[in-house]
Amino acid sequence: MKKSALEDPFSDFYYKELAQLTAAGSWKVDFLAKKSYLDEEGRRILKVPENFRPSLNDGLRFYAPEEHERVFELYNQCATGTPFSTTVKMLSYDQKLFWARATGNPIFNEKKEVIGIRGVFQDMNAEKVKQLDLQNSLSLVESQNKRLINFAHIVSHNLRSHASNLQLTLELLKSIEDEKEEAELMQSIYDISKGLNATISHLSEVASVQNKATDGRKTVRFEEILQEVLHSLNRKIIKSEAQIYYDFSELEEIAYVPAYMESILLNLITNAIKYKHPDRVPSINIFTYTEGEDRFLKVQDNGLGIDLEKYGDRIFNMYQTFHDHEEAVGVGLFITKNQIEILKGTIMVESEPQKGSTFTIKF
Fold first, then answer.
1. DSSP type of residue 3
2. Can you tell me the distance from the alpha carbon of 283 to that of 268, in angstroms, rounded to the nearest whole number?
3. Cα distances (angstroms) measured from residue 338 to each of 205, 287, 357
4. Phi and psi angles of residue 217, each rounded to the nearest 5 degrees, phi first
5. Residue 24 reports pLDDT greater than 80
6. Is 256 found in the same domain as 152?
7. Res 13 pLDDT > 50
8. Residue 55, phi then psi, degrees to nearest 5
9. Residue 4 in contact with residue 19, Cβ under 8 Å?
10. Which of 204, 303, 297 minimizes the C-alpha distance to 256?
11. Are residues 237 and 352 in the same domain?
């Protein structure tokens, strides 16, 4: 008797051997019999129980929710005669996420009508995770290189400016006989020296970001680090009458570089106090939270805020200041962003002039 194109082929010995060697599972849908089939390797990959019977209705349960719309579209296209080959996020029976390479091909009858779909999927989670890690690393390196090149240009410009001013001042000093003018030039030399020392100090700070990244992560408790920061800022807090509230109950600790965490909190709290609104005392809220597997730290203040429409693309650049303040330098946020991104995190800002700012760090 002639075999139907939709008869279950999964009992074939050589087919089973090939499936195991390639770690590929096969599935099939029979539109005429309204049945679904899943071979032994597919069952192993998906970790389904022995009594599990695949059906048309529960097919999407094996795909990540964000893939449902795309998978449904591919399946419908295949049902009208268009094969597909894609990489997709799948879910095992116990809801463990993994990446898979999946294909689907329509099955035609003698009249060229689609009477089913046959497909193969292969677990490629380790390979895909490595690929994504490599892409993230390359993106991170590219981003860091751009910032460091930008930093190098700024610092070299500042150093040349200091050196040029110093040389010009020394030349003028040679020909000055008036004591008052000489005193003014000496003050200029002092100012130039102070600026030169600050530029070198900033260069050292940025270089230390790279060095400390090699120290390795340790278990960091948010409250312990915050207390250290608040102790070091005690005078500024008292003088400004700042009110600081915190809640780390949802996420109490994290694996991180301790010096980075201290620096991040120090910079954000210092800025909140430095750029406080003149009509109200600073109120700073610091808390952690989680969303699924993602972990966050949020720092909110009620200070002067920043006009993001005007300055949004410059807020984390070197030597960028957005308010008149005698202590404004424009280094802190640049360093903070570098520290966070070196450890593969991100920092986002929401702000409105005269209302305050919110910095959200995703670890």
1. P
2. 13
3. 11, 21, 20
4. -85, 150
5. no
6. no
7. no
8. -140, 165
9. no
10. 297
11. yes
Please state the φ and ψ torsions of residue 316, each to the nearest 5 degrees.
-105, 15
- Terminal CA-CA length for the chain: 63
- Note whether 245 and 306 are same-domain residues: yes
* Rounded Cα distance, 74 and 87, in Å: 12
Over residues 298-313, the mean pLDDT reads 79
- 5 found inside a domain: no
The answer on pLDDT for 298 being more than 50 is yes
Q: What is the pLDDT of residue 147?
A: 61
Please state, in angstroms and rounded to a whole number, the distance separating the CA atoms of residues 17 and 206: 57
Q: Is the pTM of this model over 0.70?
A: no
DSSP code at position 4: P
The answer to whether residue 312 scores a pLDDT higher than 60 is no
Rounded CA separation 116/79 (Å)? 7
Neighbours of 5 (CB within 10 A): 14
Closest Cα to residue 119, out of 77, 66, 91?
77
Strand partners, 247: 287
Residue-wise pLDDT tens digits, 76-116: 999 999 999 898 898 888 888 888 888 888 989 888 899 98
CA 290 to CA 28: how far, in whole Å?
40
Query: Tokens 């009508």 correspond to what residue?
Result: 113
Range of the domain at 236: 216-363
